[in-house]
Amino acid sequence: MDFSVIVKMVREKMNMSQEDLARALSVSFATINRWENGKTHPNKLTMQVFISFCEQNGISVKD
Description:
Elements: H1 3-13, H2 18-25, H3 29-36, H4 44-56
Helix pairs in contact: 1-3, 2-3
């Protein structure tokens, strides 16, 4: 599954806005927007933060 789809799925499952998710991950709203639109991908550190956030909230994102 494409990362952009995963980000949007996680955000919607958590009933969060892009702004809410950005705050939770300590990134900007624009970053979340770019991820969801497939324009950019997170670096390794930010990806780990995203995966940890998902795991802490009971959402599996690993294939």
